[in-house]
Amino acid sequence: MKELDMGICSIDTLKASGYREGKYGVTILYHENSTAAAVYTSNQVYAAPISITRKHIADGNISAILINSGNANCYTKEEGIEKGLELAQLVADDLNIPLEDVAVCSTGVIGRQMPLDILKPVAIKSLEKLSNSRQNATDAAQAIMTTDTVKKECAVESTLKDGTKFKVAGICKGSGMIAPNMGTMLGFITTDVSFNKDTLQTALNKAVEKSFNMVVVDGDESTNDTVILMATNDVEAEYDENFQEALDYVCMSLAKQIAKDGEGAQKFMEVTCKGARSQNDAILVSKSIVSSSLVKTALKGADPNWGRIISAMGYSGVEFDPDNVSISISSKTDTAIIVDKGYVTTYDDEGILEKAENIMKQKDVFIKVNLHDGDYSATSYGCDLTCEYVHINADYTT
Amino acid sequence: MKELDMGICSIDTLKASGYREGKYGVTILYHENSTAAAVYTSNQVYAAPISITRKHIADGNISAILINSGNANCYTKEEGIEKGLELAQLVADDLNIPLEDVAVCSTGVIGRQMPLDILKPVAIKSLEKLSNSRQNATDAAQAIMTTDTVKKECAVESTLKDGTKFKVAGICKGSGMIAPNMGTMLGFITTDVSFNKDTLQTALNKAVEKSFNMVVVDGDESTNDTVILMATNDVEAEYDENFQEALDYVCMSLAKQIAKDGEGAQKFMEVTCKGARSQNDAILVSKSIVSSSLVKTALKGADPNWGRIISAMGYSGVEFDPDNVSISISSKTDTAIIVDKGYVTTYDDEGILEKAENIMKQKDVFIKVNLHDGDYSATSYGCDLTCEYVHINADYTT
Q: ipTM of the assembly?
């Protein structure tokens, strides 16, 4: 597997574009008769574009994805559906494809109708730029940003077991409202393989489970989350594990980019729970730690206050023996084992706390806990909680 | 029912004291042969004092409660139990009561052994001051504080249905790590009635359910939470609803005081969910809103971004029809109805958003949602999320 540097345009036959005016942006991804699968938010209150895309993608066939930032088109009733379709129609007409082959996604403020007088001209300018180039890949990744501070993209080339070469490329946006189960997260993955829609769906579910669903910024789950996987069918191929590996790699890379760019985040943390009795237990423990406001502020303050870690484990809802747990904190180069099968090493050796404090000062911190109770493990991704998070979110709509 | 101004010492025969040196404080509440009931944290990792108190309170009889701040005595193994008992023995010896009649509670940093060389002299000084006075009530409420900025107390006098007068008085501490199900929250309620331990336990469970368990500051649930109800048996009495009402009143007053003094909190919010299909649904919806980082920061920024409210309702896990929901935001004197049975009033009348913004600027904000789907309701209490919260928690142990 090797990384490619053309972003979403690493798939040669894909055309992409992005255009922004102020807080409103429109990104378009275009490849006629692509096979597609998608995963959506589990929030019961979901936005109009999700209703539209669910319908349009049901037959597994789309030709374009239209994404707008600046307005979520959520809690907008029938008018929201109509306006979403009106914008999609504009794209369909321009590209000469059926309306039903356009998937739509939105991100922005909830509970306001889409300002089509602003969005339509932006969409037209975006359409005019459609092509395959490094600049277009960048534009596409940037026009979907809201409170994101950097564009997020990843692309790889790999080979199936029979030697067939294939590519997977993706962009995403997401910075706040990132929670268990995909908070305001939009992800668009393209590949050149020729799998059917069910195979794509299964592969996407697996990849999302361990990537986007393991990112926590603030614990709020959005109404608009969507990840679409779109296959151009350029390469005749049969699914095997090597494809899954490449798709997982791209999704996990994008997920980590989201955690690192969490609203106001200055630091990144990766929390692994090992030795759990079930996959779900491992996920619950890992997410409980990565979501804890007290762990997040400890990370901010470079404070090795591991009591907050064991406490977050304790209220995760997972049964385990506190006296048989191990906890360590690591940087990329150093590890401090703080609890070793229930034995608190710092009671005898104050130096370990000092070491842990130095590790907590690093930009990337890795927390590992082991329940020593089974074979399952899970890793989640998060960031510190800072004043900037408060500022960003105290002033978002006004 | 009338409020009393003697705090915990409103119960005449109770002796109380509090003494503090630096971050270490000791509060003692003393009345021989009291009947008692308690509620503890549901965190699986619970502190040594909880093990001790569970055992000592099992027979429903205690004579004293010893509370220390500065060290949580949690994740301290056998040594923690021994040190907790050693401190309790000091109190038992001084008061000439059995060790088994002393309940103990701790609050502070997790994962460090109790510094008895510091805590013993503080406990002795506290014991020396035991008496019934306004000053002692204040000292008792203050010595249990950690990051609390104000002491928290409430006392009332009321009458049972047969005309018997009785009193209920309480103090508590709690400021951060306040979550669904009592985060680092210690509460001590005394009353002069003569109920048996089972009656006290049932009454306490009911009161805690709608008070302390409905407070959310940061979503972290502590290892040490305890609420003890201690009855002096001075007043021969049979339980009736009037007692429950008084106990509820005291517990809810204390719970609101905790929310108002949430770490870094500048504003208070009360979130009521009505029209739910079950009590649990009402609680889940109400707590999902009050816990949302995005709602908390919107409160901080006086931003009537009600999309965050509907979104938090949507991921609460409760089934409801988004198109049949009502949402209003109120101050003590004004109300803005933003969604009326699914109809977004602000689409037609921008003035309502302005009104809502003015309401959000008030110190106390009341959010009401109605699912129009049943007869159950629940109210939770919370606060805004501020930079001060981050500062307090980024620098707590170091």
A: 0.77
